[in-house]
Amino acid sequence: MNLPRQMLAANAEWAEETLARDPLFFKELSQGQNPQVLWIGCSDSRVPAETITHCQPGDLFVHRNIANLFPPDDDNCASVLEYAVRVLKVGHVIVCGHYGCGGVRAALLPPSPELPHVNRRIAPLCALAQMHRHELDVHASEDGRINRLAELNVLEQVQRLRDTAIVRESRPAPLVHGWIFSLDDGRINVVASGYSGDEPASA
Ligand code: ZN
Question: Which of 63, 77, 101, 177 is catalytic?
Fold first, then answer.
């Protein structure tokens, strides 16, 4: 069986099992969504938001892109935030990066001529690396530099989100959190506890 067929077969099995476990599951799911969290994560196949946090359909409103970036002038990202905050009224926005991120690694290497879209996309990450070059150079290994830049990148996106009018003008404002996932042990580290503007800090 080819892979897409396997996936369709697995889906049928999942739907059947889910219904057997909870006969009202799909009835409730089809009534509408009420997620409490907007998740902004990396597209990396190893960091699936729902799987690593034991969340279910309906729990997370998700946006993923290379290196979990939130460029302020990007309508794709901004529309997701706008809808999540103003319509769904999520209480939390979580930026989750990960160690060993390929997008972050690329920002520390010369641009690849085969990847013009990626190069443009990660340009702000290259600028961030340049801004923090002294701190990054402290790390002897490439992995150390990549992982520190991955953390700095999460902090940068958290700040950008907190600076948006969408977050600042919402009452109550959603709490913006910065997390990093480790591929080595599956654990998430908090790099920015959730607070927004003058909200009290809380994780
Ligand atoms: Zn990544």
Answer: 101
In the sheet that holds 37-42, the strands lie side by side as 60-65, 37-42, 92-98, 175-181, 188-195
3-class secondary structure, 202: strand
Over range 87-115, report the average pLDDT.
97
Residue 99 and residue 151: Cα distance in Å, rounded? 8
Q: Is-contact 150 97, C-beta < 8 A?
A: yes
Residue corresponding to tokens 């996936």: 7
Active site residue 55: no
Q: What is the pLDDT of residues 112-138, one digit of tens each?
A: 999 999 999 999 999 999 999 999 999
Burial class for 30, CB neighbours closer than 10 Å (0-12, 13-18, 19+)? exposed
Question: Measured between alpha carbons, how far is 27 from 62 in angstroms, rounded to an integer?
Answer: 22
Please report the domains of the chain, with CATH numbers, ordered by start residue: 1-32 (no CATH), 33-192 (3.40.1050.10)
| Active-site annotation holds for 96 | no
* Residue 139 designated active-site: no
Q: Report the SS3 class of residue 58.
A: coil
Distance from Cα 18 to the centre of ligand 1, integer Å: 30
Q: How far is the CA of 42 from the centre of ligand 1 (A)?
A: 5
What does each C-alpha distance from 33 to 56, 58, 80 come to in angstroms? Answer: 12, 6, 14
Taking the whole predicted model, whether its pTM rises above 0.85 is answered as yes
